């Protein structure tokens, strides 16, 4: 195995420590599992994002979608 040093936010490190203790394993093992799981998902369907874009292209048929989003956000900001 290759040793790697990473930087974590304090709350992420604390969460990993608690999760490791709860699962009775080492924090490093949890990180290895998470990376392995992420890699498996990424490699399972690398073109998923492009496929979703193609499948949903033209789904919004009510004018300029960006203008609609901006109008909604203005309304949200007024309600705050």
Q: What does this protein look like?
A:
This protein has about 80 residues and is mainly alpha-helical. It has a domain at about 10-55. It has four helices and no strands. It has helices at about 10-20, 25-45, 50-55, 65-80. The N and C termini lie far apart (about 50 Å). The model has no long low-confidence stretch (mean pLDDT about 90).
Number of alpha- plus pi-helical segments? 4
Shape: flat
Rg (CA only): 21 Å
Q: Tally of extended strands? A: 0
Order of helices and strands: HHHH
* Helix-strand category: mainly alpha
> What is the first-to-last residue Cα distance?
51 Å
Low-confidence stretches: none
Q: Sketch the major β-sheet.
A: none
């Amino acid at each position: 195995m290759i040793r790697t040093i990473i930087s974590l936010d304090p709350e992420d490190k604390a969460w990993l420590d608690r999760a490791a203790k709860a699962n009775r394993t080492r924090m490093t093992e949890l990180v290895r599992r998470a990376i392995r799981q992420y890699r498996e998902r990424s490699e399972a369907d690398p073109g998923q994002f492009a496929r979703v874009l193609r499948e949903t292209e033209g789904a919004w048929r009510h004018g300029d979608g960006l203008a609609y989003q901006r109008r909604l956000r203005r309304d949200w900001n007024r309600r705050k």
